[in-house]
Write a structure and sequence with these properties.
mainly alpha; Cytochrome P450; Cytochrome p450; transmembrane; two-stranded antiparallel sheet; binds protoporphyrin IX containing FE; oxidoreductase
């Protein structure tokens, strides 16, 4: 398999790295106690702040567009070492790379190192998003999210997710000769999230949210220039519409909670409405909306990119497809049921290994020939890798709460796809663009047909 596919989810990870690992180290560099030397005399890492205002952002974007984000970092690591300074749009920052740095970032306490997202992301998620809050507030909101996307909560929603994935897959694919793989993954991901986590059932309501969410997602990864012709301007307008729609939904759910037709555990919105802080105060509507938008932004791009990359890979690699198909046919033979449960997901061991490979692992000290597609890297305890070396979902107290949800969601998509359809790429060498997620440039047009029927 080519390197592009293998590192397909590399960019979101790297961009997340900017958000998380590239933390402004002011607390470290400029401690509160009176410094023994003025801060401008303190050692700061080598590197370049680049051009005035833009800093090194344009070079970084060019590297991402050319699929060379990793090379951009590697080059600087070669020049300056694993910790280097840079600047994007006036924000001075420190890039830290490698296992030791990952450990430092993920294990440092909140009062020493705080995680914040880049400006456009904050404008899209909102300032009261889980990304931006710390301490007790972060724990409170995170706990509510975890209740739905991990453990028992996730276990409970698998059958519903399974039937929805199948329903939306069939609706989008049945009767068509070709589809755009990326758009298909986007529709399934957003519709399932809206139905499962927010219990939205009205298709029109979801469709209206879908178009605006695509704009909001673009806005999160664009230059924050607020002029009528910019993507950012349209994204801000879309965010306002999403905000208004969520306010209507929240009011409806608040009334349903009051009249007893909805329980606090029925969906994430009901849970958030029922949350109380240590002083017994409810969470303001604005904060709930910020967090609902955050869930979509945090889950959508990376999951879609991973899922589309998987579909692309299976179209190119018949050997892996056959092994995956074998695993899933066996599950159907055993369960005799089209709707899968948590225990069925546990049987998808090979599928999960392929998912791991599709996520980033570019450090050749732990992964020889990192660009090679090799699911056996993740087989057996003897082949395990050092801690903090491979962190596609982050780590520490901000480790992605949705990693199991992402895994289940992809496993279900793969299951219903391989057991019902076969597909081939209409543009075999379609380039991969990486702004910010590594997606095929033309949205992955695929020819798709029922399994067992000859390809015309
Ligand atoms: C392939 C899919 C995914 C990848 C690669 C991914 C990756 C990440 C990473 C790297 C972080 C940052 C961790 C940090 O700050 O240290 C993160 C945070 C987060 N992710 Fe994911 N994620 C994925 C899917 C999801 C899904 C499906 C959801 C929700 C259903 C989700 C919700 C979140 C939330 C809410 C946070 C913020 C956590 C916090 O600040 O406490 N993610 N994710």
């Amino acid at each position: 398999m080519d390197g592009a596919t293998n590192s397909n989810t590399q960019t979101p990870f790297l961009v997340a790295t900017i958000a998380v690992i590239v933390v402004v180290l002011f607390k470290w560099l400029y401690p509160k106690r009176k410094p023994s030397r003025p801060h401008w005399e303190k050692p700061i890492p080598p590197g370049s702040f680049g051009l005035p205002i833009f800093g090194e952002l344009l070079g970084w974007i060019r590297a991402l567009e050319g699929g060379a984000g990793y090379k951009w970092i590697e080059e600087r690591v070669g020049w300056y070492g694993p910790v280097f300074k840079t600047s994007f749009m006036g924000t001075k920052m420190v890039f830290v790379t490698g296992q030791v740095s990952n450990k430092f970032v993920f294990t440092s306490p909140d009062d020493m190192l705080q995680s914040h997202q880049p400006v456009p992301i904050v404008h899209m998620t909102g300032e009261q998003s889980i990304f931006e809050v710390h301490g007790g507030r972060h724990k409170l909101v995170r706990g509510a999210i975890l209740g739905f996307v991990r453990g028992e909560g996730l276990n409970r929603i698998v059958p519903l997710m399974s039937s929805l994935v199948k329903k939306y897959l069939m609706k989008e694919v049945e009767g068509k000769e070709s589809v755009l793989g990326v758009i298909l993954m986007k529709k399934i991901a957003l519709k399932v999230t809206c139905a499962v986590l927010f219990s939205l059932k009205n298709e029109e309501e979801i469709e209206a949210l879908f178009d605006d969410f695509l704009l909001v997602l673009k806005g999160a990864w664009t230059l924050p220039i607020y002029l009528p012709f910019t993507t950012y301007y349209r994204a801000i307008a879309a965010r306002r519409r999403v905000y208004d729609r969520f306010c209507v939904i929240i009011d409806r759910k608040r009334r349903q909670l009051e009249d007893g037709s909805l329980s606090p555990h029925d969906d994430l919105i009901a849970t958030m409405l029922s949350l109380r802080d240590e002083e017994g105060r409810a969470i303001p509507t604005r904060e709930i909306v910020d967090n609902l938008i955050t869930i979509v932004i945090a889950s959508h791009g990376s999951s879609v990119s991973l899922n589309a990359s998987f579909v692309r890979h299976l179209a190119m690699d018949k050997v892996t497809l056959e092994r995956i198909c074998e695993e899933h046919t066996k599950i159907i033979d055993e369960t005799k049921d089209e709707t899968l449960t948590w225990s069925d997901i546990q049987k998808m061991k090979y599928t999960w290994k392929v998912q791991w490979v599709t996520l980033t692992h570019m450090d050749e000290t732990a992964f020889p020939e990192p660009e090679k597609f090799d699911p056996s890297r993740f087989e057996g305890a003897s082949k395990s890798f050092p801690p903090y070396m491979y962190v596609p979902f982050g780590g520490g107290q901000r480790v992605c709460p949705g990693n199991d949800y992402a895994r289940v969601s992809l496993s279900l998509i793969v299951h219903h796809l391989v057991t019902n359809f076969r597909w081939s790429m209409l543009i075999p060498n379609e380039p991969i663009v990486r702004i910010p997620f590594a997606d095929p440039a033309m949205n992955l047009p695929i020819k798709i047909y029922r399994r067992g029927k000859e390809e015309a």
